[in-house]
Amino acid sequence: MNTFGKLGFVSLLLIVVIATTTRAQEYPKATGYVSDFANLLTAEQGASLNGELVAFEKRSTIEIAVVIVDSLNGENIDNYTRGLAIAWGVGKRGKDNGVVFLIAPNERKMRIETASGIRLVLTDHIANEIRDEVVLPLFKAGDMQKGVIDGTHTIMRSLNATSLATSQNISDSEVVNSNELTFLGAVQVLAVIIGFITLLLIGSYLIQRSESRVRALKYKESFLERLVEGEKLAINPDVKGITRKRLESLKKDFFASSIDQLTAVSKNIRWGVVEHELYQFDYSIDGVLRNMKDEIAFAKKARKEGPGLMKKIPDMLESAQKELSKGKKSKKAEEYLEEARSQYVKAQDEYLGVVVINWVVLYAILVGIESNTVKAESFHQSANTDHSNDYSSGEPNSSYGFSDSNSGFSGGGGFEGGGSSGSW
C-alpha cells in the first residue's frame, strides 16, 4: 500500500471512530420526569406518573427519570442508560441521588440505574428484586404499561425512607494415548472408566453436599440474627401491626419446623432442600426488616415535614386553581384538583383542633393532596400542549414539563454502574 493509500485508510478510520463516538454521545432531550419516546404510555398515564414523580422529588429531593426509548442505537443497555443519566444530570448536584428507569421495548431490555448517593437505600439487591418480581413478569405477560407504572411505584416505595447455585469447573480428562491402550484389555479399560466416573460422581456429590450445608447454616445464622433485630424494631410504635404479625408468623413457622435442629452433621439430611428452605426464611425476613425501617423512617419524616406541608396546602390548591383557569380545560385535571380539595376538607374535619395529631396518617393524606394537585397541573399542561401522533418519528406524544432549553434535572452525578439490567 502506497503512502497516499495508507493516509486514506487512516483518515477513513478516524472518520469512523469520530462518527461512532459522536453517535454514542447523542441522547434525546428529557421531556419531563417521564420521557416516553416510544409512545408506550397513554397521555393520561404519562401525565399522572410524571405528577407523582414531581411530588416525590419535592418531598425527598430524589429525582427519578422514567425513560422509554425507541432504540438503543446498537448500544449496550448498561452503557446507554449510564450515558443518558450522566448527560441529563439526573439527581441533585452534590447529593448524587438520581435514578433512571429505562425501558427499550424494541430490544426487550430494561435497566434501573442508581447513583451513588442513594445506593445504600436502593441497593443492587433491591433493584434486582424490583426487576424480577415486578417489572419483568408484567413485561413478559404483555402488560408493559403496568410494568412501567408498577415498577416506578416500587422504586419510589423503596426510596421512601431515605445465585444460590455455584458453578464448578471440571477439568477435561487427560487424553490417553491410543498406543498405550493396546496393552490393556477392553474389560480393564472399561473398569477404569467406570471407577473414575463413580469416584467423580461421589466426589462431586460430597462436595455439593458440603457446600449446601455451609450455605444452609449461613442462612440460618443470618435469619436468627435478623430475627433478633426485627424483635427490637417491633417494639417501636411506628411499626405497623400487620408488619409485626408477619415477623411473628415467620418466627412461628421457623421454630415449628425441624430446621432449627439441623446444626449437626447428619447422613440423612438433604442439605440442598434445607438450604433452599433456609434461604426462603432469610429472604422473607429481609423484606420484613425493610418494611419496618421504612415505616419508622416514614413516621419520623411525617412528624418533621407534616406541619409545614399542612400550611402549604391552601396556597398549593389556590395556585393550581389559577393554573387550571388558563387555556383549554381538562376534565381529568379538574377531577384531580377536586379530589385534592376533598382530601383537604377531610384532613381539616378530622384534625382541626385535635390536641394530639397522628401525623403518620395525616401526612399520608397530605402527600396524596400534593400528588393530586401536581397531577392536575400536569394534565392541564398536557391538554394545552400540541401533541404529535407520529409513532415513527421517535418523538414523544407528550411533554410533561421540561422545555427544550431546560433539562429539568439538577446536574447530579455518581452514576458508576449501580443498579440492575434485565431482558424479556
Descriptive notes:
The protein is an alpha/beta fold. The chain has 3 domains: 26-160, Diaminopimelate Epimerase, Chain A, domain 1 (Roll); 204-297; 304-383. 60% of the residues lie in helices and 7% in strands. It has 11 helices and 5 strands, in the order H-E-H-E-H-E-E-H-H-H-H-H-H-H-H-E. The chain has helices at residues 3-24, 43-60, 77-88, 124-140, 144-158, 178-181, 186-234, 241-256, 271-324, 331-351, 359-383; strands spanning 34-36, 63-68, 98-104, 109-114, 418-423. It has a 5-stranded mixed β-sheet, sandwiched between helices. Helix 3 links the parallel strand 2 and strand 3 (98-104). Helix 2 crosses helix 11 (359-383), helix 8 (241-256) packs antiparallel against helix 9 (271-324) and helix 10 packs antiparallel against helix 11 (359-383). The longest helix has 54 residues, at 271-324. The radius of gyration is 29 Å and the shape is globular. The protein starts with a helix and ends with a strand. Residues 17-25, 162-181 and 388-393 have low confidence and may be disordered.
